[in-house]
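Summary of Year 1 activities. Much of the first year was spent building the evaluation harness for sequence design. The harness presents a backbone, in tokenized form, and records the residue chosen at every position. We chose the following record to illustrate the format because it has been used consistently in internal testing since the harness was completed.
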């Protein structure tokens, strides 16, 4: 695919992302996506087979973008605690971006039960998220800064706490709580990985 076609496809996917975040999965039509992209419905149909094809590529595009941003953030740091902080801060990008992503993401999760392609894309996203967690934990154990926790279980826990915190923040509908949830998430993960809670209880 040439560069012009790739840019046009991304333009349509960005428009679909905005449309779903504002209108919801079921309400959005192919014409809505075209209108948001400021192109004709025919142009949208040229690049994608139908609405479901747009949504399948949208989920792939947005989750891959999230993963790349988060991996780039940890790659700039050298110690495990710094990588963990960078991971959490990248996940808690800012209230506006987090609100849009999780509104769209929750719409997709609601459909995933009935759509194998959505489930497969989400599985790949979580495998990528868990790989970031494993990388951080393995380094922390090598440094001696993290406790000898089970690496796979801990990688699941990291992402579960990040997503759970952000979804809970989203439901609060209060941007001022964004920093609180981010800092609380990081503190909880840091205590868990360094085993501070167990040390304090002894």
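For this record, the design step produced the sequence shown next.
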């Amino acid at each position: 695919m040439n560069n012009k076609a790739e840019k046009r496809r991304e333009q349509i996917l960005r428009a679909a992302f905005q449309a779903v975040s504002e209108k919801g999965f079921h309400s959005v039509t192919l014409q809505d996506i075209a209108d948001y992209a400021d192109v004709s419905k025919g142009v949208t149909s040229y690049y994608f087979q139908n609405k479901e094809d747009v949504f399948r590529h949208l989920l792939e595009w947005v989750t891959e973008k999230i993963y790349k941003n988060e991996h780039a953030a940890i790659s700039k740091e050298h110690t495990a605690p710094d990588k963990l902080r960078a991971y959490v801060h990248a996940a808690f990008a800012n209230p506006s971006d987090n609100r849009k992503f999780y509104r769209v993401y929750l719409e997709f999760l609601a459909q995933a039960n009935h759509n194998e392609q959505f489930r497969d894309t989400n599985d790949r996203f979580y495998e990528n998220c868990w790989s970031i967690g494993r990388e951080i934990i393995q380094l922390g154990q090598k440094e001696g800064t993290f406790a000898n926790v089970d690496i796979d279980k801990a990688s699941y826990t990291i992402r579960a706490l990040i997503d759970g915190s952000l979804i809970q923040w989203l439901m609060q509908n209060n941007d001022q709580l964004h920093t609180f949830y981010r800092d609380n998430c990081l503190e909880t993960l840091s205590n868990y990985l360094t085993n501070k809670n167990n040390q304090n209880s002894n």
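The chain has two domains: 1-48, 51-201. Quantitative recovery figures across the full test set are reported in Table 2.
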